[in-house]
Amino acid sequence: MPMGSLMTEFTLAVAATVIAATLAGVYFTSLNQVTDLQKLQVLGLKEQLYYRCDIIFAHSSEGSTTIKFWVKNIGFKDLPKELIKKSELVILNRNKVYYLLYGESSNSWNYRLLNDSDDDGRWDPSETIEVEAHLSESLTSGDYYLKFVLFNGAESEYNLSV
Questions:
Q1: Dihedral (C-alpha) 12, 15, 19, 24: value to the nearest 10 degrees?
Q2: Within a 10 A sphere around the Cβ of 40, how many other Cβ atoms?
């Protein structure tokens, strides 16, 4: 075998090895990125399972400027006051949309913990809060849609007829 063809074969073998190593590096880098994304998705799902709620009843009457409803913590973790206050409330009817944040004024909501079984001031699993929504206008008769959204996006919906 001539020396020129041996050098050519050696050069091709080195080039093939370099290309294979580069492709393997790109593959493993991409695989690590996919793994990291999956870990983030699992953490997000875990948080949504930890923090969940359910509106169990709501009440108001025609002419009132308040809606009271009761929300149960059906998640696996307790929520401190700071996280409860980051929740949002949306109230819809045929003519109006209310977007309410926590507060003490009109067009806001506040709450009180009803059955704090361990007296820690936190909203533990299976405990209930009473939410009072304060509106700037009196309610008219009709159907209202309530959506209570926790800080992490977990939500509960309820249909109320006034």
A1: 100
A2: 10
